[in-house]
Amino acid sequence: MASSKITAGNTEIISLTDIEMQFPWPAFFPNVPMGELEEYRDLYPASWGDIGFKTDAGCYAVRSEGKTILIDTGLGPGPHEMLRGATGDLVNDMKSKGVPPDDVDVVLHTHLHPDHVGWNMSGDAPTFPNARYYAPQADWDFFNAALAANPQMGQVIPLNDMGRLELYDGEITITSEVTTLATPGHTPGHCSVLVNSGGEKVLIAGDLAHHPAQVDRPEWSAAFDMDADGASATRKKMLDRLVEEGHVAAFCHFPGDGFGHIAESGGKRVFQAL
């Protein structure tokens, strides 16, 4: 049964949901034949919606060494025209799970796509008033070079202007139990987050993969992967590591709370939800 909260050693990891999303299959996986996608329908029925790929904008909160670390901030309050006027609910979900915005010490972005930065600001003020924000340097450089095409940077640039944003490159340590890992491809600076405490590990994978079928087909890249070949290579490398080490992974766009193991079953690699 899915759970919104797990522990790894002395840490606590809480799954959060901002908003449900659906995309037509050809728009999300334009190079994947529909017949091949259909092979995974029975295995992952929760990823099928009435118009195509069903997912959500997920985030995670990690409590480690007295700090509350929010990983990504969803799509934002909206209403979102592309989602038929739907609105985001991250802040309410956080409060309902015991993570009020004032408690957040660090906001750590895996990357700077719109569905990962949307609640950074509330009007002219940071949504998480006591937090230091972190963003990948390579994403900052890339998206700032084309601001007209990347309006989501309006949720990031003001933090830098306020002195609240720290840009990072590759691996950094947030606490002795929480570090980033460079996993580029989806975006130039995309990072995952490794929680390592008391001999237990959880990889918070960001957008390393979007659909659970990709654990078996890492060569499938979503339309939003900016470097499709690079994303596929990184995905395969990290999935191999997850299978070898056997620890839990958390994927922002997988069904439910996104927690699970990668395992070999029936000649396939499968995502087994906790």
Give an overview of the whole structure:
The structure is a single chain. The chain has 274 residues and is α+β, with helices and mostly antiparallel strands. The protein has a single domain, classed as Metallo-beta-lactamase, Chain A. Helices cover 17% and strands 31% of the residues. The protein has helices spanning 25-28, 34-38, 90-96, 137-144, 157-161, 228-245, and strands spanning 5-8, 11-23, 53-64, 67-71, 106-108, 121-122, 125-126, 132-136, 165-168, 173-175, 178-182, 191-197, 200-204, 248-250, 259-265, 268-273. It has a seven-stranded mixed sheet. It has a seven-stranded mixed sheet with strand order 10-11-12-13-14-15-16. Strands 6-7 form a two-stranded antiparallel sheet. The longest helix is centred in the C-terminal third of the chain and has 18 residues, at 228-245. The N and C termini lie close together (6 Å). The model has no long low-confidence stretch (mean pLDDT 96).
CATH superfamily: Ribonuclease Z/Hydroxyacylglutathione hydrolase-like
Count of folded domains: 1
Strand order of the largest sheet: 1-2-3-4-5-8-9
Residue runs with pLDDT of under 50 for 5 or more positions: none
Q: N-to-C terminal Cα separation, in Å?
A: 6 Å
- What is the overall number of helices? 6
The averaged pLDDT comes out at: 96
